[in-house]
Specification:
Rossmann fold; 10 strands; binds zinc ion; single chain; globular; about 325 residues; binds Fe4 H S5; two-stranded antiparallel sheet; 6-stranded mixed beta sheet; alpha/beta
Length: about 325
C-alpha cells in the first residue's frame, strides 16, 4: 500500500476517504481537517486564547498538541476526579505531556483537584449526594471549565470530542427523539449569554481511529484505559453499532453527522428574544458569582449537600 499523495510506503489506510498516507502526509491530512473545522465553524482566530479541556486521553492531548503546532495560543485545564487507580495515572500523563509541550511552545497547564475542593473524590461525592457518578462528574467538569475560561479571560474553550463521539451522541438523541439536545450538537457553541464561555470541538472531522493513529505516530503518550465509570455506558454501545456500520459501509459516521450539520439543525439561529430571555433569567449565584437561573447554582447546591452529609455523619 502506497501513500496516495507522495507514493512512498503508506502507514495508514483511510477507507472512508479512499486514501492511504505515509506519516508526513497523514500528519498533513490531520492538520488540514482541524484547520478546516476551525475555519468553517468560525471557532477562533490566531489571536484568541484557547483553553483546552484535557483528560490524559488521546483526543484531548492530541488536540492541545495540534493547536500549538498550528500556531494557536492554547493552554489546558485538567480536572483530577480522584478516581482510584485511574486519576493518578491520567494526571501524571497530563503533567508529563505539559512539560514536553512547554519545551517548544508557550503554554501552561491548570489543574483543579476535586478532592482538595470537595474533601472527597468523585465516587464518594456522588454516593454522598445520591447521584450517578457521571452526572456528578459532568456538573463539576462543566462548572470548573467554564469558570476557569471566564475568570482567566480565555476567548474559547475547546474539547477533544471526535467524529465517533459526535455521531454516537447524535444517534442516542435521535433514537430517543431528544430533540431539545439537537441544537447543542454543533461543533461550535457560541457564548449565547454572558458568563458562559464559547465551546468548540475542533476534532469533529476526525475519527477515533485516525486520532489514535496520529497520537501513536507522533509519540503522544496518553492513558489508554477509559475511565472505569464509563463501563456499560450507552455511548459505548452506540459507538460499537456505528463501527459495525462503518466497516460495512465506510463513510457512514461522517455522512450521518456531517449530513446533520449541513441541514442546519444544530446551528438554527435562536431568536433574539430567546437569548434576551435567557440572559434576563440569569443572575450571579449568591455563593460563587457564576451565572445561574436559580439563586444558588447547581454546583454550589451540590457541594452544600455534600458538606451537610459529611457533617451529619
Ligand atoms: S470521566 Fe466522568 Fe466520564 Fe468518568 S466519571 Fe463518567 S463522566 S466516565 S467523560
Ligand atoms: Zn455557585
Amino acid at each position: 500500500m502506497n501513500c496516495t499523495k507522495c507514493k512512498t510506503k503508506a502507514v495508514i489506510g483511510l477507507p472512508r476517504h479512499n486514501a492511504a498516507f505515509c506519516k508526513l502526509c497523514f500528519n498533513g491530512f490531520v492538520h488540514e481537517q482541524v484547520a478546516r473545522a476551525v475555519k468553517s465553524e468560525r471557532m477562533f482566530g490566531p489571536n484568541d486564547r484557547i483553553l483546552v479541556a484535557v483528560s490524559g486521553g488521546k483526543d484531548s492531548l492530541t488536540l492541545w498538541s495540534i493547536l500549538l503546532t498550528l500556531g494557536y495560543r492554547a493552554d489546558a485545564l485538567y480536572v483530577d476526579l480522584g478516581i482510584p487507580n485511574y486519576s493518578e495515572k491520567s494526571h501524571e500523563k497530563v503533567e508529563r505531556f505539559a512539560d514536553k509541550l512547554a519545551q517548544s511552545h508557550e503554554t501552561k497547564l491548570i489543574v483543579h483537584t476535586v478532592q482538595e475542593q470537595a474533601g472527597a473524590g468523585i465516587r464518594e461525592l456522588a454516593m454522598l449526594i445520591r447521584r450517578p457518578t457521571c452526572s456528578t462528574c459532568g456538573t463539576i467538569k462543566r462548572y470548573q471549565f467554564n469558570r476557569a475560561a471566564v475568570e482567566q479571560h480565555y476567548d474559547v474553550m475547546a474539547t477533544g470530542h471526535n467524529l465517533d463521539d459526535e455521531a454516537a451522541r447524535l444517534l442516542g438523541n435521535v433514537l430517543h427523539w431528544q430533540t431539545e439536545y439537537l441544537d447543542k450538537q454543533g461543533p461550535s457553541l457560541p457564548a449565547s449569554v454572558e458568563g458562559f464561555a464559547k465551546k468548540v470541538k475542533p476534532l469533529y472531522r476526525l475519527s477515533e481511529r485516525e486520532i489514535a493513529a496520529y497520537a501513536v505516530l507522533n509519540r503522544i503518550d496518553y492513558i489508554v484505559e477509559e475511565c472505569p465509570m464509563a463501563k456499560g455506558s450507552k455511548m459505548l454501545l452506540y459507538k460499537e453499532v456505528l463501527n459495525r456500520l462503518e466497516t460495512e459501509s465506510p463513510g457512514t459516521k461522517q455522512r450521518f453527522y456531517c449530513g446533520f450539520l449541513e441541514r442546519g439543525i444544530a446551528t438554527e439561529p435562536r431568536t433574539g428574544t430567546m437569548q434576551e430571555h435567557d440572559q434576563a433569567m440569569l443572575q450571579p449565584c449568591t455563593t460563587c458569582g457564576q451565572p445561574t437561573s436559580a439563586e444558588v447554582c447547581s454546583y454550589c447546591k451540590m457541594m452544600a449537600r455534600a458538606k451537610a452529609k459529611v457533617h451529619s455523619t
